[in-house]
Amino acid sequence: MTTKNELVTNETCPAQALLKSLSGKWKPEIFRLAVDGTLRFSSLLRQIEGANKQTLAVALKELEVVGLLQKNVIKQKPLHIEYVLTEKGQSLIPVFQQLERFGQGEIG
């Protein structure tokens, strides 16, 4: 797992650090779903075809460590955890949308 400090110090280009933080198994899909609202682990398992508990947990933790997602423990019965985009994550929404449009061939 990459820590926040490693992202800053090991990359020669700030954009490279950002792309690295959003790359990896399920991270782009998690981020895209988080744009639409609050995420719950069990819901993500159902929505992301091929995801398993271990890789999903790692991806969520890494997005949390780099400050894009915030983990909230809801102490109601039954106890559950929700993930939401942080302010930093929300600031990336226009960038992410631009990347999606480019990937769909709408730009260029």
Explain what the structure shows.
This protein has about 110 residues and is of the alpha+beta class. It is built from seven helices and three strands; from the N terminus they run αααβααββαα. Mean pLDDT is about 85; it is low at about 1-10.
How would the blueprint of this fold be written?
Layout: H1 4-10, H2 14-22, H3 27-35, E1 39-40, H4 41-47, H5 53-65, E2 69-74, E3 80-85, H6 87-91, H7 93-103
Antiparallel strand pairs: 1-3, 2-3
What structural category characterises the helix and strand content?
Answer: alpha+beta
**Number of DSSP strand runs:** 3
Poorly predicted segments: 1-8
**Straight-line N-to-C gap:** 34 Å
Overall mean pLDDT score? 86
Q: Return the string of H and E elements.
A: HHHEHHEEHH
Gyration radius, in Å: 14 Å
List keywords for this structure.
108 residues; 13% strand; disordered N terminus; 3 strands; alpha+beta; three-stranded antiparallel sheet
Quick synopsis:
With 108 residues, this protein is of the alpha+beta class.
